[in-house]
């Protein structure tokens, strides 16, 4: 279940918009906060997924 988690399409589209503005150097302060929040959530999700994969690998090894 955790491995299947991802941002909804609308959030990915918004992140693409923010990334484009960041490349152009036109982000507002509020948009910078928004992109920072997306990055924190994305990093946390990646960490959870990594831990889930490691747990699955350990469980698989224990059943062999």
How would you characterize the overall build of this protein?
The chain has 64 residues and is mostly helical. It has helices spanning 9-24, 29-63. The longest helix is centred in the last third of the chain and has 35 residues, at 29-63. It is elongated, with a radius of gyration of 16 Å. The mean pLDDT is 95.
Number of helices in the DSSP assignment: 2
Would you list the SSEs in sequence order as H and E?
Answer: HH
Largest sheet: none
Q: What's the average pLDDT?
A: 95
Spell out the key features of this protein.
80% helix; 64 residues; mainly alpha; 2 helices
Helices and strands, with pairings:
Layout: H1 9-24, H2 29-63
Short description:
This protein is an all-alpha fold and 64 residues long. It has helices at residues 9-24, 29-63.
């Amino acid at each position: 279940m955790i491995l299947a988690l991802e941002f909804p399409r609308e959030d990915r589209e918004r992140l693409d918009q923010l990334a484009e503005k960041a490349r152009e150097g036109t982000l507002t302060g509020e948009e910078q906060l928004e992109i920072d929040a997306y990055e924190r959530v994305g990093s946390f999700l990646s960490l959870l997924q990594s831990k889930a994969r490691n747990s699955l690998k350990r469980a698989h090894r224990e059943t062999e």
